[in-house]
Amino acid sequence: MSKPKIAFICVHNSCRSQIAEAFGKVLAADVFESYSAGTETKPQINQDAVRLMKELYGIDMEKTQYSKLISAIPKPDIAISMGCNVSCPFIGRPFDENWGLDDPTGKSDDEFKAVIEQIRQNVLALKSKLCGSSF
Q1: I want to staple 21 with a disulfide (CB 3.0 to 4.6 A). Which of 36, 38, 103, 133 is the partner?
Q2: pTM of the model
């Protein structure tokens, strides 16, 4: 049986969605496949996100991840919006969940760490939920 494909979507695919993809790959790879994407891209993943994920969890997002468009990932079984403070990108289908996360870009490390922790908790909750589903 194949694992469901989860897409974490943000407009620029440079910060929150990248963090969610990284946690999905590390914490939930046994339950689902993780992808992140956006309607626009950035030249690189947010460097504060990269630094803090390395410091806190030893995860180097730049090794296997890069900013990519929605068209560059497989069709998801579940699509999760990170909580765009502007209009969320249209991905060709409704979102299954909206995590409502503030963008930590340009904020203090403490604020950034709080968002990272919320993403970690959300990924673990999603894993737990899917463990009991029929995917």
Answers
A1: 36
A2: 0.92
